[in-house]
Amino acid sequence: MPTPRRPGRGGQAPPDAAGAAAWHELGKLDAFAGRLTRVECEGRTLLVYRADGACTVYDNHCPHQRTPIPLEALEGGALRCPKHGWTFDIATGECTAKGDRPLKRYPSRIDSGLLYAEW
Ligand code: FES
Questions:
Q1: pLDDT per residue over 109-118, tens digit each?
Q2: Residues 48, 38: Cα–Cα separation, whole Å
Q3: Nearest residue CA, atom 4 of ligand 1?
Q4: What's the 52 CA to ligand 1 centre distance in angstroms?
Q5: What is the pLDDT of residue 18?
């Protein structure tokens, strides 16, 4: 994993000439007080799962057919896509029923009370 670059003003580090991944500011940590929160950032829809003070960031789309997964799909520790029932462990993103691919997970970090994800 490349060394994190601190985002500039506006929340996004400029992409480098090689098109390497950059850190994107998702918002203040306080905004993710719920167990599962949806956030839009630069054209992406993400799910932020928060547990034990840590955050895990996933793409909001099911890896099967890219269906957006609603927050209400979370039951206990399982996130179940409403379209065909692929089910994911929300703590790890691993597919636990019906399907065979995990949720897309983004590297994330917390810095000065702000949550960042890398893509
Ligand atoms: S699109 Fe999610 S299970 Fe098929």
A1: 999 999 999 9
A2: 6
A3: 84
A4: 29
A5: 67
